Amino acid sequence: MALLKEEDRQYLENLFRENLKDKVKIILFSEKAAGSKLVVPGRIECPYCQQTREILEELAGLSDLLELEVHDFLTDEIIAKKYNVDKIPAILFEKNNNVLGVRYFGIPSGYEFSSLIEDIIDISRGETQLSPTTKAFLKTVDKPVHIQVFVTPTCPYCPRAVRLAHQFAMENPLITADMIEAIEFPHLAEKYEVTGVPKTIINEKVEIEGAVPENVFLEYFKSALKD
Amino acid sequence: MDFISITKPIEKIEEEQEVIILGGGPAGLTAGIYAGRNLWKTLIIEKAIVGGNAALTEKIDNYPGFPEGITGEELVKRMETQAKKFGSKILEVDVLNFHIDGIWKIIETSNGTYRAPTLIIATGTRPRKLEVPGEEEFIGKGVSYCAVCDGAFFTGKRVAVIGGGDSAVEEAIYLTKFAEEVIIIHRRDTLRAEKITQQKAFSNPKIKFLWSHIVKAIEGDKKVERLILQDLKTNEIKQLPIDGVFIYVGLIPNTEIFKGILNLDKDGFIITDEKMHTSIPGIYAAGDVRGKILRQIVTAVADGAIAGMEASKFLEDIKYNKEV
Questions:
Q1: Catalytic annotation on B146?
Q2: B189 given a catalytic annotation
Q3: pTM score
Q4: Which of B2, B61, B101, B146 is catalytic?
Q5: Whether pLDDT at B142 is above 70
Q6: Which has the minimum average pLDDT: B12-16, B169-173, B313-317?
Q7: Which residues contact B67 (CB under 8 A, 6 or more apart)?
Q8: Distance CA B144, CA B175 (A)
């Protein structure tokens, strides 16, 4: 059974037709035997891998400008290492043979599905919705920055935090921004003491509780760059 | 909730509008439906989430027409679709400032300036804070104002819900999906919530009550570990070990940018007449942000409908005056 309802499918097909410009490759790291009852020793459990794959397959089918590439996290270990993928399901994006710093760990379901759609459109069009001031500053960033945004699919405020972080990553290849679905990765939620979402961590040192406006987020971002 | 949730298209929005509505909750969306059906160029500006506080409600059982109940998300999504169907545009940006220049009501946002001869304020409310030591410090570390967002982090744990109104009791019931024990702490010895909601709470074995108690402080090392409570009947101070605390102690109107411009009541709610007119012609208020006796979705949509129609009348009047 399709995960996308017919009306949503039509809406998205139309939205992509009107808004996509360049080709975008969606790269999914998953597990091949997802959904099967066969227990493979050493294989990690990934309860949402199968659904993530299904939703991306349906999505990629809605536009000729979208392509889906699926890797098995265990057998394609070298590729996973190359892309710094350490947990699954993981979604990355490639445009003009460049892998972007926009990443999803965990299923982009619930409210996060909108983040995924908006990210795809921004990536394809090659432009973000950020203000000129933010864009200008991000161009000057000359060292790696890692942003992690913890979310739950039922949190309506979370996509704002995810989208902001992802747009930051689109503006400069040195910036990597991860959405992390907190319920699927409890060890990370515990490590970063996440009991409320959205929670954003920049370069392991700056923590932001809640969704903040762009200018406020930029200030936190700047403070994470200071040594 | 739905497995996936889809919102907002991307489009260019003109600076000059005929009706600007601040707030995309039930009042704002309904105002959008009515203004749109009168064919006025209508823009709804929402700063956080379309649907407002209603979108955060797990299930709505008292909105007429849905005898089985409906999720807040589904109800507001339908209102959004309806507002868009009749031509309203929705823009999700922060509103920074507001001023008036002759006939124009001018709204500065984080994404440009928009103006219209009529403005409908449906900015709603935000949760009131307890204002006790530890509350700010532990936001995201055990203090929450959003049960649907954060409830799952308290699976198998013990949480407190502060308050005794509809939101407090409904969210306490929702939290029993995850938490092992939910303790409702209320300053009075009876609840203000609807009787049917009270019954549900009283019959839920996971919910306990601490009547006539107030929170004096929220304490812990790195995260919330205990509440310091005062028993109002005996004045005794006690400690309650707890993993999380959800606060539902009332609402603060989002009216800061209108202070000194519009007449507000002592709590900051906008004063209107029964036609939703504020103290300035062409400016209307609708929904929870308005001084009123019952803050419910059903009263918000009624306000929105009236405000949408009154804005239409105002626009017709100035158009008529221009032509003669």
A1: yes
A2: no
A3: 0.86
A4: B146
A5: yes
A6: B12-16
A7: none
A8: 12
Residues B183 and B240 in one domain: yes
Q: For residue B2, indicate whether it is catalytic.
A: no
Write down the ipTM of this complex.
0.84
Residue B3 lies in a domain: no
pLDDT of residue B123: 96
Write down the catalytic residue from B149, B265, B267, B317. Answer: B149
**Hey, is B116 helix, strand or coil?**
strand
Domain-embedded: residue B6: no
What pLDDT sits at residue A34? 46
> Any CB–CB contact under 8 A between A107 and chain B?
no
Shared domain check, B262 and B119 = yes
For A177-191, what is the mean pLDDT? 96
Q: Residue A92 pairs with which residues in a beta bridge?
A: A27
- Give yes or no for residue B167 having a pLDDT over 90: yes
DSSP state letter for B73: H
Q: Is A190 on the interface with B (CB under 8 A)?
A: no
The verdict on a CB contact (< 8 Å) between B142 and A195 is yes
Give a yes or no: residue B14 inside a domain.
Answer: no
Q: Which residues contact B312 (CB under 8 A, 6 or more apart)?
A: B19, B34, B35, B38, B40
Q: What tokens were used for B255? A: 């009216």
Residue-level pLDDT at B23: 96
Kindly report the CATH number assigned to the domain that includes residue B67: 3.50.50.60
Percent of chain B, pLDDT > 90? 85
Q: What pLDDT score was predicted for residue B320?
A: 64
**CATH entry 3.40.30.80 includes domain A6-33+45-225:** yes
Claim to verify: residue B238 and residue B266 sit in the same structural domain: no
Q: What's the CA gap between B250 and B128, in Å, rounded?
A: 5
Is residue A148 within 8 A of residue A201, CB to CB? The reply is: yes
- Residues A59-108 have pLDDT tens digits of 999 999 999 999 999 888 899 999 999 999 999 999 999 999 999 999 99
Closest Cα in chain B to A211: B48
Per-residue H/E/C for A121-184: HHHHHCCCCCCHHHHHHHHCCCCCEEEEEEECCCCCCHHHHHHHHHHHHHHCCCEEEEEEECCC
Min Cα distance A63 → chain B (Å) is: 16
Residues B111 and B23 occupy one common structural domain: yes
A9-54 pLDDT per residue, tens: 998 999 999 999 999 999 999 987 544 555 556 556 788 999 999 9
Question: Which residue among B10, B51, B144 sits closest to A196, beta carbon to beta carbon?
Answer: B144
Domain holding B160, by residue range, is 143-247
Q: Which of A113, A210, A215 sits opposite B5 (nearest CB)?
A: A113
Mean pLDDT of B46-60: 85
Distance CA A203, CA A215 (A): 19
**Chain B residues within 8 A of A52 when measuring between CB atoms:** none
